[in-house]
Amino acid sequence: MTPSSQPLLTDLPSYTVRVSSRAKCVRLALSVEDGLEVVVPSNYDRLKIPEIVHQKRDWIARNQRKLDEREAFFRSQAPHELPDYINLRSLGEEWQIEYCETATKLGSISIREDKEQLRLVLDGNIADIESCKALLKRWLMQKAEKHLFSWLRKVSIRTNLPYRTTAVRGQKTLWGSCSRDRNISLNYKLLFLEANVVEYVLLHELCHTVHMNHSAKFWKLVGKIEPNYKALDKSLNQAWQIVPAWLDF
Ligand SMILES: [Zn+2]
């Protein structure tokens, strides 16, 4: 008995066969949607296909790897996707978000808050990602108005540094600001930061009601109220990293 010269055609990658009347010879195609496809001309002897796939196994492995890498890259670029939780460190609240696809008139979306479970439910045309994001942002703005305004009032009373009005904004590079008329604006993204860092921002802006600059006198006033201000200022500079990327896309 002579050993067979045929290679063992086990462990072949799975594939589908597609007959194409336009194909002149056998060809392999690999894609995320269809996987591995063997395209053959009509009247092709299908018994030859396993051998061809076997011969092409290096090409298949190499291209499969490329596809996997590209997929991983797209998955890592997640900011265009919707978040499944929102961690408001400053308040010690982590909200889970659920999206429920329901048919509504005009394709609208609504947001529902379950305070006990710290759960947000978005109902409606949730395929509309931009509208979902806009709703979540609006919810964050309202949350910021509710919590940051009263927080600022408390710090103001405690430090005896009065201000005139407050507003919540969503600037990309500014945590807060104070005008000459002592109007303070605060970034709603402060909600994502640790409470002691937020408290430092509030104090910092309140000190600007006395000194409209970053002079030695200004820092002396800050230091009198918060001796640890240097470390807090430093962590504030790095804090942009913990603001979720989906907010700015
Ligand atoms: Zn400042």
UniProtKB/TrEMBL annotation:
Kindly indicate where the leader peptide sits in this chain.
none
The record ties this protein, via Gene3D superfamilies, to: Metalloproteases ('zincins'), catalytic domain (3.30.2010.10)
| This protein's name | M48 family peptidase
Positions of the YgjP-like metallopeptidase domain: 28-238
InterPro entries from the UniProt entry = UTP_pyrophosphatase-like (IPR053136), YgjP-like_metallopeptidase (IPR002725)
- UniProt organism field: Pseudanabaena frigida
The organism's place on the tree of life at top rank: Bacteria
Recorded hits in Pfam families, A to Z, give:
YgjP-like
